[in-house]
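FAQ: What does a ligand-bound record look like?

Like this one, built around zinc ion:
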Amino acid sequence: MTKSQIEKFAVGYSSYPTDCVEEVLKVTNFDEDVAREILDDKEKTLAIWQNGTIMIDGVTLCCGYDFAEDAFSKKINIGYCPICGRKIVIKKPMNE
Ligand SMILES: [Zn+2]
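The answer part, i.e. the structure of the complex:
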């Protein structure tokens, strides 16, 4: 996404600073649907803003750490990326 596309996207979220919206977009690898889901939830947005990350299909987007089967085990509670320590704010299945 270009700077102007980011700014255009941020207009819809005027309650957040543009930098914050940009950070959310970066964390999602510019997946606008996932970014919207985060931005619609103030707590999630703040968590990302405070160095949070996302796990998609068992892989953290920050470092690419793959939890493999652990990601889908109900017995294991995954809260943080083991490489960088970022809090995992939302967990998404792989887009199909
Ligand atoms: Zn990480």
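Follow-up question: can I read anything off the structure? Yes, for example: The two ends are 22 Å apart (CA to CA).
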